[in-house]
Write a structure and sequence with these properties.
Elements: E1 2-8, E2 12-19, E3 24-32, E4 40-45, E5 48-53, H1 59-72, E6 82-89, E7 100-101, H2 104-112, H3 120-135, E8 140-144, H4 154-157, H5 163-169, H6 178-192, E9 198-204, E10 208-214, E11 217-221, H7 244-252, H8 256-265, H9 268-273, H10 279-287, H11 291-315, E12 320-324, H12 325-330, H13 332-341, E13 361-362, E14 371-374, H14 379-392
Parallel strand pairs: 1-6, 6-8, 9-12, 12-14
Antiparallel strand pairs: 1-2, 2-3, 3-4, 4-5, 7-8, 9-10, 10-11, 13-14
Helix pairs in contact: 1-3, 7-8, 10-11, 11-13
The structure holds adenosine-5'-diphosphate.
């Protein structure tokens, strides 16, 4: 049975078409610069890559062309072969704790919650509507980034601010990357062959978050009301003292959202290194002796270690620590530095095995007190799995 996973952004649409009988990928692709000059698509299938500039006025255009190309390129014979569409949805507030069949109510909620994810929720709605227009009544499933974190308890998700901010304005920790953290927890369940274990999932990419998981449920996570909170990221600061905001507003003659924009877009690795948000560039600069790059990597490692330490105590010890996403799956020196800082907890890794990139590997040695793994994340597959399971059980 074929299922398509969709990740719609404000000017892009990514897709993965799966054959769910064996969970293999049939095709993947990206439609970018939607509604902007220079729009184009890339489709990869059967070891081939097709790239073409094409006018894409909106998401409906992108979906129309995507479906046409799947037929033209003989990737599928007929649209009937696609039995379901799974959408990555960003913000389900505290209403959605699981994936759901997309109904008008879900679409209305996405629109109602747009204040909480102004770039993402409207884009998700565009993606859903475009598929509705193209494929009519095809079953569609929504998989929320926030859903996995709904098991956090009140003492965790509340901020120590006036309670009214929570009650009246919805100010609380929501958490993000939930689909990735859930994928990692499910992978660990397979590895450990049990459900009752404690782990820390480190999704460290350009964006990044750490998640404390007990018995397959999220206990705490580092992102908060928005994805700006938590660890240092490629361009995001992560946690800072909020009084910095009015201070910089005054210094630079900016308003609050401009300074928050700076914290989202020109901080993190980019801000500290004054060079790049990409860990590969930072590591190359360190090789050439650049001090700011060194400092940026040191701070990045420190923030991850701070969260792991915090969650180690919160969970009362852990069975496993898992690395995933761009940096977690590929960055050998960053993993090494993080694990070295955790040696006081009895973490020991095999430096030879740590040289592997982008693949599943158990890094920890037999005498390590905590098992350490690299597990490549696959949010698209989890979206397709949820889609299949929900449409089968309708
Ligand atoms: P996003 O949050 O945009 O999904 P990714 O998970 O793709 O981000 O992670 C991007 C980050 O992963 C970048 O900082 C990039 O440098 C890093 N990365 C990817 N491949 C490597 C590599 N081979 N070595 C070091 N870092 C890598």
């Amino acid at each position: 049975m074929k299922i398509i996973s969709i990740n719609a952004g404000s000017s892009s649409l990514k897709f993965t078409l799966f054959e769910m009988d064996d969970e293999s990928i049939i095709a993947t692709g990206l439609f970018e610069r939607i509604g902007i000059e220079g729009s184009k698509y890339t489709i990869k299938y059967n070891g081939e890559k097709i790239e073409q500039e094409i006018e894409l006025n909106d998401h409906t255009d992108a979906v129309k062309i995507l479906l046409e190309k799947l037929i033209d390129l003989a990737i599928i014979k007929s649209l009937d072969e696609i039995k379901g569409v799974g959408h990555r949805l960003v913000h389900g507030k505290d209403k959605y704790s699981q994936s759901v069949i997309i109904t008008d109510e879900v679409i209305n909620d996405l629109e109602a919650f747009k204040e909480f994810a102004p770039l993402h929720n409207p884009a998700n709605v565009l993606g859903i509507k475009a598929f509705k227009e193209a494929l009519g009544d095809i079953p569609m499933v929504g998989v929320f980034d926030t859903a996995f974190h709904q098991t956090m308890t009140e003492d965790t998700y509340l901020y120590p601010v006036p309670y009214k901010w929570y009650k009246e304005y919805g100010v609380r920790k929501y958490g993000f990357h939930g689909t990735s953290h859930r994928f990692i927890a499910l992978s660990m369940k397979k590895i450990l062959r049990k459900e009752n274990f404690k782990m820390i999932s480190c999704h460290i990419g350009n964006g990044g978050s750490i998640c404390a998981i007990k018995d397959m449920k999220c206990v705490d996570t580092s992102m908060g009301f928005t994805p700006l909170a938590g660890i240092m990221m490629g361009t995001r600061s992560g946690d800072i003292d909020s009084s910095i905001i009015p201070y910089v507003m005054e210094k630079e003659g900016k308003n609050a959202s401009e300074v928050v924009d700076d914290l989202n877009k020109i901080s993190g690795l980019l801000g500290m290194s004054e060079y790049s948000n990409d860990m590969r560039d930072i590591l190359a600069k360190i090789e050439s002796g650049d001090e700011k790059a060194k400092l940026a990597e040191k701070k990045y490692v420190r923030r991850v270690v701070d969260y792991i330490a915090q969650y180690y105590v919160l969970l009362g010890g852990v069975d496993a620590i898992c690395f995933t996403a761009g940096v977690g799956e590929n960055s050998v020196p960053v993993r090494k530095d993080i694990c070295e800082a955790l040696s006081c907890l009895g973490v020991k890794i095999d430096l030879e095995l740590n040289n592997k990139r982008g693949e599943f590997v158990k890094l920890s040695t037999d005498d390590s007190k905590i098992a350490v793994y690299v597990i490549p994340t696959d949010e698209e597959l989890l979206i397709a799995r949820d889609t299949l399971s929900l449409i089968r059980n309708r």
